[in-house]
Structure formats: structure tokens, C-alpha cells
């Protein structure tokens, strides 16, 4: 009897997680983004499968929060498109994913700059490392004040970092999130904590 009850609990949990699905509008937005990045041609992502199901290729590239609508609706919180040979511009459509907090599109061949529409995003982590983004420092980034971690290294940006980079109040916390890589270098020293001038140095370092 105990065994049966146990099984039933497992089973109901299983069916429960299966029932939470990505918001229909966000499914459309994902399809737009994947299309613009040229990823749908690769056919590794199955749009018949729910992107929040943790199945197939989705498990590596999309994270969701499924607590909406009494745990029945998911929203995208993180996207990882790393080393996929993407060589397009950065799609504006990322802004339509209102719960997106983590975006990592590192190690591709992305070109152009950051779309000005991105200013409305509330990202916490943004990794654009090792792409071919270019132009002056993308001032749009200074509007994403929620940013705690920003990595734009290994691109073709040029020129100086604008003064108003100091609008990124939260970025100073980054040194404590990444405790064992090179960023610590810029921050982790006796005067490094919450020091705008250190932040400035760090970002200069980011721009190659
Ligand atoms: C949603 O799921 C969480 C975690 O499993 C649970 O604590 C919460 O009570 C659920 N909320 C509703 C409305 O079902
Ligand atoms: C990217 O391109 C390289 C060289 O053409 C190829 O070897 C690699 O498999 C490609 N990676 C993906 C994810 O398409
Ligand atoms: C911030 O860092 C700069 C450069 O290292 C240093 O000169 C300055 O004294 C520091 N300021 C504070 C408040 O720690």
C-alpha cells in the first residue's frame, strides 16, 4: 500500500511538471529569434517540443520559470546560444521576453552593435564575449541598470567608455559572483570594492 502511495505521488508530480508550458506568445518570440539567428535552419531545436520541457536541444539553451498562472505557465528566464556559428546581428526581439535575466551568446560571429531597443531589458547577466560586434561602446548597455555581470570582451568595439557607464550601479557586485577568473583581477584588491574608477578600469580591459 505504501509503495502504491509513493508511486502515485511520483506520478502526480510527473504529470504536474509536464503540464506547465511556455507562454504561447513567448513561443512565437523564441521562434522569431531563432529564425533571425539562422538557428531554425539547423533543425536541432524542435519547436514541436515545449521549449521549457528540458527536452532535446532546449535543455542546453533555454531556462524557464514555470510558476506563472498557478504553476501552469512558463516564461523564459535564460538563453544560452554559445559557439553556434551565428553570424547575424543581435535580434531586437529579445526585448519581448520580459522575464529574461540571463543572455549568453558568446563565441559566435555576431556583428553590428547592441540594438537601442535593448535599453528596456532587465538583464542581470549578459555575455557577448568573442563575437564581432563593433562600433563605439554600445551606450544602450548603460540603460540596462539591472546588470550585475557584463562581458563584452573579444569584440571589435573601439573608442572610450562613456562617463555614464557609472549608471550601472549593480555591476560592481560582479567581482563577488565570479571569484576565480580574470575579472577578479580588476576588482579584488583592497580598493576594488564599490569603486567606480575600478569599474571603469575593468570595462577598459573588456574592450580589446
Ligand atoms: C507552485 O509550485 C510551488 C513549488 O512546487 C509550490 O510551493 C506552490 O505552492 C505552487 N503554487 C500553486 C499555486 O500551485
Ligand atoms: C561551426 O563551424 C565549424 C567550421 O565550419 C564546424 O566545424 C562546426 O561544427 C560548426 N558548429 C556548429 C554548432 O554548427
Ligand atoms: C578607487 O580606485 C582608484 C584606482 O585604483 C584609487 O586611486 C582610489 O583611491 C580608489 N577609491 C576608493 C574610494 O577606494
Automatic annotation (TrEMBL):
Residues 1-19 form the signal peptide. Coiled coil: none annotated. The keyword Nucleus does not apply. It is found in: Membrane. Pfam families: LRR_1, LRR_8. InterPro entries: Leu-rich_rpt, LRR_dom_sf, LRR_Rcpt-Like_S/T_Kinase. The keyword Repeat applies. Keywords: Leucine-rich repeat, Repeat, Signal. It is a single-pass type I membrane protein. It comes from the Eukaryota. GO terms for cellular component: membrane. This is Putative leucine-rich repeat domain, L domain-like protein. It comes from Helianthus annuus. The lineage of its organism: Eukaryota, Viridiplantae, Streptophyta, Embryophyta, Tracheophyta.
Amino acid at each position: 500500500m505504501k509503495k502504491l502511495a509513493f508511486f502515485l505521488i511520483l506520478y502526480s508530480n510527473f504529470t504536474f511538471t509536464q503540464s506547465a508550458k511556455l507562454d504561447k506568445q513567448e513561443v512565437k518570440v523564441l521562434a522569431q529569434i531563432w529564425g533571425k539567428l539562422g538557428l531554425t535552419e539547423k533543425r536541432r531545436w524542435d519547436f514541436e517540443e515545449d521549449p521549457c520541457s528540458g527536452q532535446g536541444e532546449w535543455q542546453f539553451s533555454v531556462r524557464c520559470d514555470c510558476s506563472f498562472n498557478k504553476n501552469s505557465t512558463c516564461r523564459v528566464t535564460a538563453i544560452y546560444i554559445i559557439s553556434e556559428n551565428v553570424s547575424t546581428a543581435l535580434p531586437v526581439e529579445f526585448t519581448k521576453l520580459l522575464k529574461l535575466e540571463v543572455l549568453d551568446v558568446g563565441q559566435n560571429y555576431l556583428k553590428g552593435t547592441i540594438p537601442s531597443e535593448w535599453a528596456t531589458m532587465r538583464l542581470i547577466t549578459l555575455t557577448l564575449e568573442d563575437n564581432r560586434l563593433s562600433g563605439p561602446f554600445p551606450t544602450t548597455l548603460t540603460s540596462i541598470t539591472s546588470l550585475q555581470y557584463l562581458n563584452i570582451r573579444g569584440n571589435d568595439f573601439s573608442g572610450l567608455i562613456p562617463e555614464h557607464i557609472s549608471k550601472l550601479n549593480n555591476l560592481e557586485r560582479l567581482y563577488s559572483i565570479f571569484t576565480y577568473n580574470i575579472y577578479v583581477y580588476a576588482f579584488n584588491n583592497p580598493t576594488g570594492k564599490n569603486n567606480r574608477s575600478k569599474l571603469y578600469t575593468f570595462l577598459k580591459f573588456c574592450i580589446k
